[in-house]
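Retro notes (design track)

What went well: tokenization of the new backbones is finally stable.
What didn't: we kept losing track of which sequence belonged to which structure.
Fix going forward: every design gets posted as structure first, then sequence, in one message. First example under the new rule, 198 residues:
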């Protein structure tokens, strides 16, 4: 796969239950896609902005097999929960020495929820369930603490949403298990569920 894919985006929804959907935490961080090419690694954001210099600790991605493309969220987990304010202030750093210090003192975790290419083969046309099965196997074999799998459950979305909020999470995501990955598009196959605005 050549070029930087744009991330698939979700639409808002209310909590619901369905055996056809995967429910996972809505990670409160910086959306990022990552790739391992034959000549190095890459990390970028929504508008194809290069994130490699901002997050030097993500050099660990160089250990992935060439031909791998991941989608996930860069988070800071100081108390085990994503701290959006902390990651946003970290994201705005531009001075190399400050970035290096932050990468040592406050290293980010890359929580990965999708696999878009594997061993050089594009998976965007494959169902989400298939992509995530491969992703979980890949990350279990790799065992890199800086890169974590975004766990999820199928079915009881309302309960999952309530538990996520009780833990202090921002909300939940609901993704149709048969959904293809649609780069750069907002699709009702992916739903973001957040508390009603007060």
């Amino acid at each position: 796969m050549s070029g930087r894919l744009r991330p698939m985006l979700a639409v808002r929804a209310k909590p619901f239950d369905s055996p056809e959907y995967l429910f996972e935490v809505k990670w409160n961080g910086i959306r990022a896609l990552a790739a391992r090419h034959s000549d190095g690694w890459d990390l970028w954001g929504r508008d194809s902005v290069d994130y490699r210099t901002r997050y030097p600790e993500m050099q660990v991605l160089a250990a992935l097999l060439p031909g791998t493309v991941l989608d996930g969220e860069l988070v800071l987990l100081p108390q085990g929960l994503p701290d959006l304010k902390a990651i946003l202030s970290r994201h705005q750093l531009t001075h190399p020495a400050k970035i290096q210090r932050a990468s040592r003192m406050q290293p980010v975790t890359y929580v990965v929820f999708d696999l878009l290419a594997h061993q050089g083969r594009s998976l965007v046309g494959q169902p989400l369930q298939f992509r995530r099965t491969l992703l979980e196997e890949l990350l279990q074999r790799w065992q890199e603490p800086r890169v974590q799998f975004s766990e999820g459950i199928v079915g009881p979305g309302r309960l999952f949403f309530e538990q996520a909020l009780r833990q202090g999470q921002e909300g939940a995501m609901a993704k149709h298990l048969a959904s293809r990955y649609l780069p750069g598009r907002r699709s009702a196959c992916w739903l973001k569920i957040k508390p009603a605005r007060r």
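Added context from the reviewer: The chain has one domain: 9-193.
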